[in-house]
Amino acid sequence: MTVKELVSLPHFTLANPTADIEKIISDGICCDLLSWVMAKGDADMAWVTVQTHMNVVAVAVLHDFSCIILSENNQMSQDVLAKASDEGIAVIHSDLPSYQICGILYGSGVKK
Amino acid sequence: MANEYIIREKYLVIANDFNAAGDASASIKTTLKKIGVNSALVRRISIAAYEAELNIAIHSEGGEMVLLMNKEDIILQANDHGPGIPDVSLAMKEGYSTAPETARMLGFGAGMGLPNMKRCASDFQITSEVGKGTNIQMVFKVA
């Protein structure tokens, strides 16, 4: 699925409209430990996390992730969101817990 | 000649500046993409660079990253001004970390940085002296 398709679903909202939403989501990672994500991440992943600080964007960009999904209504500050927009990486807000978000992604065909 | 560098860039890394941590790695990634290094290799180098940069920001009193490239290799060096690692073989062990609580709160300190750098690089060398600092050199084969 694409980022655009994901944000068209209920419970998912694009936080930075200028981001590239045509990117394909080919896999996912659900983790709040950035070191772990650095070691295990791969290109075109959707990253589900509750972390919202500047380094989240850096890790997502270095890995060429498709998007960052913030679960349970977590939100980035304006400067972090601006950095994500500059880098073209989509930040998606959801009220759902990480576990349910992963279930939706998996059920939508995001699996390797 | 192999030691004629096409690229030679240096980036300062400031201790405990978590907002700026990642900027050097992003610049390295941009440079490598610009000169046409293949994307899989760019990702590997970027990941290793980020791990090294974060280690300098979290654990050291500051340091620098150096990017070198000749026809055969891309070399990444991470040098800091101390305090040095008392037991390098222990530090290389996956899961071992001395990261402070401030870094752990941000999601760092899983003890995967050094092993991840070693995994990404074709060759990985680390030397450290307590009271002086740590020097890491990673070589990535271009061909």
What is this entry, summarized?
The complex is a heterodimer of chains A (112) and B (143). Chain A has 112 residues and is of the alpha/beta class.
3D structure, described in words:
Chain A is built from 5 helices and 5 strands. With 112 residues, chain A is α/β, with parallel strands linked by helices. Helix content of chain B is 35%, strand content 27%. Chain B has helices at 23-34, 39-59, 88-91, 101-105, 113-120, and strands at residues 7-13, 63-69, 73-80, 123-129, 133-141. A 5-stranded antiparallel beta sheet of chain B has the order 1-2-3-5-4, with helices on one face. In chain B, helix 1 runs antiparallel to helix 2 and helix 2 (39-59) packs antiparallel against helix 5. Classes of the chains: A alpha/beta (112), B alpha+beta (143). The A-B interface holds A 32-39, 43, 51, 53-55, 57-59, 61-64 and B 18-19, 21-23, 25-26, 29, 39, 43, 46-47, 50-51, 54, 106-113, 115-116, 119.
Strand content of chain A: 15-25%
String of helices and strands of chain A: HEEHEHEHEH
Structural class of chain B: alpha+beta
Radius of gyration of chain B using CA atoms only: 14 Å
Largest sheet of chain A: 5 strands, mixed
Rg of chain A, Å, rounded: 12 Å
Proportion in β-strands of chain B: 25-35%
The end-to-end distance of chain A, rounded to whole angstroms, is 12 Å
Oligomer: heterodimer
Number of strands of chain B: 5
